[in-house]
Sequence to fold (439 residues):
Amino acid sequence: MNEQLTDRNQRTEWYRDSRFGLFMHWGLYSVLGIDEWIRSINQMPEKDYVHLMDQFTAENYHPEEWAKMAKAAGMKYAILTAKHHDGFCLFDSQLTDYKSTNAAAGRDLVREFLDAFRAEGIKVGLYYSLLDWHHPDYPHYGDRNHPERNNPAYKDVPYNFQNYLDYMHGQIKELLTNYGQIDVMWFDFSYENMAGDTWGADQIMDLIHQYQPQMIIDNRLEGAGNKVGSIMTQHPKRYAGDFASPEQVIPPYPIVNEMGEPVPWESCITINKHWCYNPADLHYKPAKLLVRTLVDCVSKSGNLLLNIGPTPKGEFPVQAQEILQEIGAWMKVNHESIYGNHVAEIAKPDWGRYTQKGNTLYAHIYEESISALEIRGLQGRIKRMTLLADGTEIVPTKHWTLSAYPDVDYFFLHQSATDSYPLPDPIDTVVKIELEPQE
Ligand code: GLC
Fold:
């Protein structure tokens, strides 16, 4: 591993151990409660949107409560939208009037978020949109996404993109210098030629190195399709990022670079089907699915960043709160199989997943079975097996009718039974397997 990657490895250590984070999309769009892209989707003029500032009250925003809920769910880091594509800022930027302190909220929502989550020992990050549909010097007509992209009135309006870059870099500097330590900056996103150097990404990295050298960033200062100097290469560009950011998908196997070395990664996944608050969207993912998704990520050495869209008043939707509680109940007794865990030394079993930390393997059992469950590839290295949730001892066995398969160890989930049914925890029953160290 070269020096650059060793440095990345060190800075991302806490992040790779954390495994579970909270994402929040919150802004003026939350008032409409449809989609954070609504201005772009409906090609909505600015004048029909800015007045939402009067309705963005944040009146029930108690970030200490958010932080407590996140902590109880077992989340170790949290990322809030400081600015999304609409350009509205949740922080008291001196470079714009388009901010929460000037909205009905009248508060610096970012500062309060940072204080509250830090107080619970949760690492903090900020999402910052590279796109900006409010700034006059961001390309309007002909841009791929801008709400005014098809409006001929903007066709010949001159703009000075450098002004926008100065603004964006100035805001990033504000965030890096006025808010204490920020653990993650989550830049979003690059498209077509709006990528890398166009964003002045090297200057952004200069700011980060100057003010917050410990900070880690995602890989979206760079276009997703770019192969040259990306995070997947042996010599990534300075701004290639510290972790890969698959979205609404779990990679099929651990992400590695062209040298086969692990690349830190995080899948961001919505709790229902939207990033921002959408009261009509009741397609909440059940806790069982989300726990298994988290385990799937960990079994591939990755993180899960679970997104919630707070209401314009500043509440987590009730459904989301309930799901967090259920995840928390599972995490409370099973977190040992998550934090600091990574891909296991043996292949994925038919009945669930493995995660591993040092010489301890965790079997995550999803599938009920009328017989014993098989473990392949440990060649008698099992020292001790227990049910992680309560410490019940489980005795490995060579099932007498299966002696034709000498490479397989078996275990019954119930000490005195001959089957593994019913499973003690239908969400995910975890068996802790302590191994003799490998020769
Ligand atoms: C998608 C959405 C964007 C959201 C992002 C988070 O790109 O369009 O609104 O912020 O995902 O990864």
